[in-house]
User: Fold these one by one.
Assistant:
Number 1:
Amino acid sequence: MRKKLIAANWKMYKTPDETRAFFRDFFPLVVGHERDEIVVCPPYIDLAAALEAARGSNISIGAQNVHWKPEGAFTGEISANMLLSLGITHVIVGHSERRQYFGETDDTVNLRLKAALESGLIPICCVGEVLEEREAGLTDDVLRRQCVRAFHAISSKKAAKLVVAYEPVWAIGTGKTATPELAAEAHAVIRRAAAEIFGEPFASQLRILYGGSVKPENASALMAQEEIDGALVGGASLEAKSFAAIVKY
Ligand code: PGA
């Protein structure tokens, strides 16, 4: 049995004060919830406030990106060691918005993934096709390619903590959700790719989250799919009540 992981991706939203306010409202709603793992990924400047607020609770805190070098002259970047020194446990890698707007490539995703895994962070590696690729029947090829390149030269032993998120780009922030069946099909493609790269036992343990307009109304149907091991939630994670409703799908 794979324990489900429900992660919030706050993107570029909330100040430290707003972060503290979120946790004040969110805690009572999920206190004692052990069925699923809960992770919240705020912007860098909110990480300290989030860690402070979540201390001793059932909620882990993650970052939204990580650089692959331990330190150096890389203005604006943050390393895995820096995140770990703060108490961060998870990190999102290769989100489609990074790929779309900030020049992220399959190769830089691979570098970030290696750095995260080597440091002991739990990476949530995002893959997903854009609308034109889906319409051209290329979804399976795109997902396979993204996985092969992202996991390049990583051993199954090193990859032990890896989590993957399937995020069809056409469903992110658009209100369009992949149907549970369609998402499950894509997850199966990712799991097959992982089996080829890391072996069958690894693939059967690998958690694959779904992301793209997950809301309280569609969470339970998505989570009912055996292939879907949790969710990466953007817009609907910004509000305590709606994220708690998703966690408790
Ligand atoms: P959304 O974002 O839930 O707002 O569609 C998901 C994501 O980008 O991780």
Number 2:
Amino acid sequence: MTGVAKAVAHSNIALAKYWGKADRARNLTAVPSLSLTLATLRTVTSVRFDSSLPDDEFSLAGALMGGRPLLRVSKLLDNVRAQRGFDTRARVESVNDFPTAAGLASSASGFAALAMAATRAAGLETTPEQVSALARAASASAARSVFGGYVALAARGEHAERVASGEDFPLQMLIAVTAVGPKGTASTDGMTHTQRTSPYYAAWVEAAPALYAEVRRAVETADFDALGPALEHSALAMHASMLAARPALIYFAPATLRVMECVRAFRGRGGRAYFTMDAGPHVKVLVELGAAAELELELGKLEGVTEVLRTGAGPDAYWVDP
Ligand code: DP6
């Protein structure tokens, strides 16, 4: 055991969405999902096991964290400690290379980087699948960030798997940042609330596998015209289940709709671009390489859009020198 390790994981955006848990205790998902790992938006995390520490410590961008964020980190470390059979506490330092304040901070890259660094620091011999399973238990979308390119996680899946590389199907993603500030309701709480109160949750769970199959087929055949409509439908069907929750979960800001409208108008003029959104007001737009610069400019001019980030497909999570 080296006791210390550092890892980088890239964020991912689901094209076929995960929303809902089949097993809350084990954090197994109710529906299959498929995502694109992004080249930008990374988390760098170092883990140092240190026998002089009375408790785990977790800092994000230099600020010491307590409460739920620390508990989630400790839970993942407990899993690693149990597998390795020791009890040493750890110091975890995490930095996102994207504006956390913009509410883009995703648990996906965070827990994938933590799972990578913690297993290595503990001296565990692991496969990427085992790291993905460890990350999934902390946050299901994190399972997918262990792999680069297009990545799938089956319903009740233990770990994610790569479906295609970024080079197989080169596309760009534009992230229209529509509001500044941390997001409203965290995904975990939002999906539990939807499961408990939305009459449309059951319909979402029933519809999601066919949508996933459509997205997966389109990715495997690199068919953008088939992928686009399916990914928009997946996002909107997921949001429909949230909107029908009581009280409603509304992640849309006025600018969210402006971006969607702009993307639809772009298509009306023959452009090829499709939107998706998660548990926050920002809109992510998948666009073919040749049209990305033009659409990026257009989105940047919209009222309420504070920033547009542009990225392509990202790599597997990896270790760096601590
Ligand atoms: C809307 O993976 O953050 O981004 O497993 O409870 O941590 P937990 O949830 P999380 O949910 C992601 C939801 C989503 C869609 C997706 O990424 O598939």
